């Protein structure tokens, strides 16, 4: 029994779960119950799983089809893919907009707050906006309450306001809203619209959500990501190279 407990604790430490116990109720529940995707569940149960180190870049390029959240050209020299869930704590850590969460761990404490962690997503955004990399955002249910948030991201993308919506959802307010209030209930979408404030056209956003234009998008994204052999969030692809987890910007920069 003691050996089994020790093994379980080692797994939790490997995914940095021990840093977050007691911080937020939904996050605690998530870490105590384990992951929702097959690869992480197998890890917790002690099975050995092989995570691919490369991804099918040709398949990723096919998603530059006008139906997905993409920036730049599919034939760019550098294509960065973010597999994320706006309700996922580790995605928030990588997003760099939720210092209250980052600061619960010395590992993830950001430079601006006296730590050493440089969140990768803001740095990726800089490359994309400078035209130095193309980008694609894909949803996978790393925490499981991000479906309405993802629909909002697609609707915001229609307005040319993806990053504005992304940065709002990746705050503490966005995390609490998706996990404690919305919980994938589209009937609560007005609260997501309110969170955006004047960052984008709220009336258009509400109309888009009410139309259910993107209700199937989270499932479609998830199926595609899983077909590539992944599911954990966040995961980043730099062309065909894989960087898993909320690793610092230096891990992605090294691949670049």
UniProtKB/TrEMBL annotation:
Residues 125-255 form the Thioredoxin-like fold domain. InterPro entries: Thioredoxin-like_fold (IPR012336), Thioredoxin-like_sf (IPR036249). Belongs to the thioredoxin family. DsbA subfamily. One of its GO terms (molecular function) is oxidoreductase activity. This is Thioredoxin-like fold domain-containing protein. The chain crosses the membrane at residues 6-24. PANTHER family: DISULFIDE BOND FORMATION PROTEIN D, GLUTATHIONE S-TRANSFERASE KAPPA. Keywords: Disulfide bond, Membrane, Oxidoreductase, Redox-active center, Signal, Transmembrane, Transmembrane helix.
């Amino acid at each position: 029994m003691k050996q089994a407990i020790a093994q379980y604790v080692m797994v939790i430490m490997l995914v940095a779960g021990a840093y977050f116990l007691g911080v937020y109720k939904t996050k605690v529940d998530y870490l105590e119950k384990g992951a929702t995707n097959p690869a992480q569940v197998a890890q917790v149960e002690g099975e050995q799983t092989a995570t691919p180190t490369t991804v099918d870049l040709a398949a990723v390029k096919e998603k530059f089809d006008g139906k997905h959240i993409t920036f730049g050209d599919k034939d760019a020299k550098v294509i960065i893919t973010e597999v994320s869930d706006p309700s996922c704590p580790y995605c928030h850590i990588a997003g760099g907009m939720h210092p209250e969460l980052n600061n619960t761990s010395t590992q993830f404490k950001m430079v601006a707050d006296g730590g050493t962690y440089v969140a990768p997503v803001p740095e990726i955004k800089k490359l994309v906006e400078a035209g130095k990399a193309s980008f694609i955002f894909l949803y996978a249910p790393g925490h499981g309450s991000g479906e309405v948030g993802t629909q909002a991201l697609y609707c915001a993308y229609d307005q040319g306001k993806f990053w504005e919506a992304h940065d709002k959802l990746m705050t503490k307010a966005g995390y609490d809203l998706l996990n404690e209030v919305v919980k994938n209930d589209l009937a609560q979408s007005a609260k997501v619209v309110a969170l955006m404030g004047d960052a984008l056209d709220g009336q258009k956003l509400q109309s888009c959500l009410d139309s259910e234009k993107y209700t199937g998008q989270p499932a479609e994204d998830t199926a595609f990501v899983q077909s590539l052999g992944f599911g954990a969030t966040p995961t980043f692809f730099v062309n065909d190279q894989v960087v898993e987890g909320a690793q610092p910007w230096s891990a992605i920069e090294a691949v670049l």
